[in-house]
Specification:
alpha/beta, binds nicotinamide-adenine-dinucleotide
Length: 299
């Protein structure tokens, strides 16, 4: 079975290079019409970035269809305009890959509040802006596939990336609620934590690994997660052709009654509280309260 995107319109943010470019080229090869968003030349983010234009040219040279957009994901109005232009030319927007991103790494002790805010703004608010800009269209169409780009830093932490990690786990949280709200409109929302050799990571990878971790080795996960038969609410890791799944789990816990319901009681029961036997993967926040009721009844 070949996965195709004929008659689908896709927006990939930050697609002038790295992972976004790889996703956009593969989507176009498989029939999608693709908006290549990346920061424009002008200070207000308008205009067309050279990098985005180069990707459009590459797609068109291969017989595909694409348009460039120089809006910044941090500006909601620019994202709304981008969506309007895609709809004007191609009649809808079916796929959004929120991929644009920046780094301002420093230990938290040395990080300026402005650098924390900027990184959260580009990744988290930026992805919320783009998703908001397409949401109503996807609801009206009763079709939408949205992919958030998280990171192992968000899921598990990484020294020197407090701003980035906060934003990236925020995106996984955003995806979980949008998955619930989008379900009845056939909007599926997933999260991808990629590992790839790009300009963002070029100083971290040794040369050989840089090649093995080519962005093209992440693209299969991104494309499946925005395809017709995509799952929803998945958190997928991908790098160098290895594909993984991550989960947010919850242990059954322990009911501490009477005198045991104290900080000392929590300390005394720590290993039982954190025991992962029979842990679950809640499908919504309400399941925490349901599991609490079950644990109370059991114990
Ligand atoms: N490379 C990795 O190993 C890795 C790991 C985890 C997560 N990620 C995430 O994957 C995504 C892609 O990263 P990459 O490695 O390809 O890096 P990259 O730097 O090549 O790509 C990011 C792109 O986003 C664009 N961009 C930045 N700010 C923007 C804005 N305000 N509006 C529009 N475009 C903007 C940049 O111009 C750039 O082209 C990012 O969200 C990144 O955090 C990458």
């Amino acid at each position: 079975m070949t996965i195709r995107f004929d008659d689908r319109v896709a927006i990939v943010t930050g697609a002038g290079g790295g992972l976004g470019r790889a996703y956009a080229i593969e989507l176009a090869k498989r029939g999608a019409k693709v908006v290549i968003n990346d920061l424009g030349g002008a200070r207000d983010g308008t205009g067309h970035s050279d990098a985005a234009l180069a990707v459009v040219e590459e797609i068109e040279a291969a017989g595909g269809e694409a348009m460039s957009n120089g809006g910044s994901v941090t500006e909601y109005e620019q994202m709304a305009e981008m969506v309007a232009k895609a709809k004007e030319r191609w009649g809808g927007v079916h796929i959004l890959i929120n991929n644009a991103g920046v780094l301002r790494d420093k230990s938290f002790a040395k990080m300026e509040p402005a650098d924390f805010e900027f990184v959260v703004r580009v990744h988290l608010i930026g992805s919320a802006n783009c998703t908001k800009a397409v949401w109503e269209t996807m609801r009206e169409q009763a079709y939408g596939r949205v992919l958030m780009t998280a990171s192992s830093t968000g899921l598990y932490g990484n020294f020197g990336q407090a701003n980035y990690g906060a934003a990236k786990l925020g995106l996984a949280g955003l995806a979980k609620t949008l998955h619930l709200e989008g379900a009845k409109y056939n909007i599926r929302v997933n999260t991808l934590a990629p590992t790839a050799g790009t300009r963002m990571t070029e100083d971290l990878f040794p040369e050989e690994a840089f090649k093995a971790f080519a962005p093209e080795k992440v693209a299969p996960a991104a494309l499946f997660l925005v395809s017709e038969d995509a799952p929803s609410n998945a958190i997928i890791g991908a790098g160098a052709g290895v594909f993984q799944a991550a989960y947010v789990t919850l242990t059954p816990g322990v009911a501490l009654k009477g005198d045991a319901c104290t900080p000392e009681g929590v300390a005394a029961h720590w290993s039982a509280i954190t025991d992962r036997t029979d842990e679950i993967v809640p499908q919504s926040g309400a399941e925490q309260a349901m599991l609490i009721m079950k644990t109370l009844q059991a114990g």
